[in-house]
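Hey,
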Amino acid sequence: MIFSGKWGKVPLCNEKAERAPHIGRFCFPLCWRCTMIMVGLIIGAFVCRCISPGIQTGIIFSILIIPCLIDGLRQRYTSYVSTNLKRILFGFMAGVGMFVFTFSIFV
């Protein structure tokens, strides 16, 4: 089974408990970056109610994805270790950017 003994101990996305939110001893199933991407996607739905869709809007909001991409790839392929604060901020920005970009391009 995929959860075999790890559920509530490490996040499913990267299996590093120090990079995930906790409630007591329970570890959330997603790390800070992934959790905030999900929150950003939800907030992005509200942002879309206040803007006009279009290619220009999509391109502008796609810029919000770049810091998360750079931070994640830099951490993956170098010895750099990001902080949870950066993961939270960049994940949130990426989530909003992804939702608004997708909404603007396809609506």
